[in-house]
Amino acid sequence: MITALIACAVMNWNSPILAEPHADTQKSAAQIAKDQAQFQKDILDDKKVGKEAADYYDRTLKPTKDTAAQQRVEEIGAKLALIANANSFDLSWGDRRHAEFEYKFKVVESKDVNAFSLPGGYIYVYQGLIDFVQSDDELAGVLAHEISHAAQRHVAWMRKEQAKMAPIQIPLILASIFTGRAEGVITNELLGTAMTNGWSVKAETSADYGGVQLVVAGGYDATGMLTFMERLQAKDANMDANLGILRTHPPSKVRADKIEAYMNKNLIAIRRSLVSTDFRVVNKVSDKGQNVLYFGKRKLFAVSGDLARAESTMKGLNTFFDRVPEMYDVTTGEDGVIYAKNRLLITITAEDAKANVTDVEQLQNTVAKAIRSSIFALAYHIWEGRN
Fold first, then answer.
1. What is the distance, to the nearest Å, from the Cα of residue 199 to the centroid of all Cα atoms in its chain?
2. Which of 127, 214, 225, 299 is deepest in the core (most CB within 10 A)?
């Protein structure tokens, strides 16, 4: 079962990328020292709880045999962890004190598209998620989300809000929510109680808010968080009866809209073609040596001439699709011309027609139709989760 990971923050997305320090100038030196000692104790407690939970999952989950996947996750995770430990980011729910951990990343065998985080910085990524992501930017978005769970000390915050529950139950509940499984460790009643109280929603929204800030600081394209969510939502669209962790996440429209609002406010361009092959025009050389353009898996046409012309056409189309156009924006004119919002997009030549074994007018109409169909597919992926 595919489970959702990306949940955008529904709280203050207009905050700066780095959080302002929360100093209390009224505290005495003795009180500050006491608070610092308590915080160090809290951090040690996180590490202890996380280690115990990690020991359990290490016994129940098999490590991947894909060494390249493990190395990829470790390299991206280490870069993000270094930034997370060196900076304080804003959050909407959790501990605002800056926590540093020695993050550990483990890829495990499973076809599920999932990942989860434990206290103290233990992060597990399922092989199915590695196979699903289409760029390092998408993977970085997931890892930043999970790092934020640990950095914001969500298990400890949950324990603080629900002190009446046994301490050992809390991390198991949260881990079960993050993985989307009870794993046979806790009862359905306890899991239901946790979800009813909205713990996971608060944790997910805040972790995703921190995650977006972290990927930007790490130099990754934040669009990857958006495309990952859009593709996953479209894939899960028909799973109404058993949505698993999707039930505990904020509405998809809120998630996507908040990501876009954050990126627009911070002047971060949304370029889906750079982070996802589903949203990208690519050139595939055919057996005949032709340069054939595809949008995702949808064939557009074979481009005549040299590689430079194919790449130029591909670049123009990607710029066009990145704007998320409407189908009616694509029109045709005389002499094989295809327009995008009344601006030249492609000119179909006699050589193109010959390469596609047809005439200019027929190829012009075929390509225009293929582009409109691609726009429809793009819109479905983007807007399916926003209705």
1. 21
2. 225
Confidence category of residue 300, pLDDT binned at 50, 70, 90: very high
Three-state secondary structure readout of the chain: CCCCCCCCCCCCCCCCCECCCCCCCCCCHHHHHHHHHHHHHHHHHHHHHHHHHHHHHHHHCCECCCHHHHHHHHHHHHHHHHHHHHCCECCCCCCCCCCCCCCEEEEECCCCCCEEEECCCEEEEEHHHHHHCCCHHHHHHHHHHHHHHHHCCHHHHHHHHCCCCCCCHHHHHHHHHHHCCCCCCCCHHHHHHHHHCCHHHHHHHHHHHHHHHHHHHCCCCCHHHHHHHHHHHHHCCCCCCCCHHHHHCCCHHHHHHHHHHHHHHCCCCCCHHHCCHHHCEEEEECCCCCEEEEECCEEEEEECCCHHHHHHHHHHHHHHHHCCCCHHHEEECCCCEEEECCEEEEECCHHHHHHCCCCHHHHHHHHHHHHHHHHHHHHHHHHHHHC
Candidate from 4-8, 73-77, 92-96, 270-274 with smallest mean pLDDT = 4-8
Q: Can you tell me which residue has the tokens 């910085």?
A: 121
Q: Residue for token digits 């304080």?
A: 88
Cα-Cα-Cα-Cα dihedral of 106, 108, 113, 116, to 10°? -40
Which of 127, 134, 128 minimizes the C-alpha distance to 296?
Answer: 134
pLDDT of res. 135: 98
pLDDT tens digits, residue range 116-173? 999 999 999 999 999 999 999 999 999 999 999 999 998 888 877 766 555 555 555 5
Average pLDDT estimate for 344-364: 98
CA distances in angstroms from 381 to 30, 36, 103, 201, 237, listed in the order given:
56, 48, 33, 23, 10
pLDDT in tens, 16-63: 344 444 555 578 888 889 989 999 999 999 999 999 999 999 999 999
- Which of the pair, 229 or 348, is modelled with greater confidence? 348
**Beta-strand relationship, 298-303 and 330-332:** unpaired
CB half-sphere exposure, 184, CA atoms < 13 A: 3
Note the residue count of the chain.
387
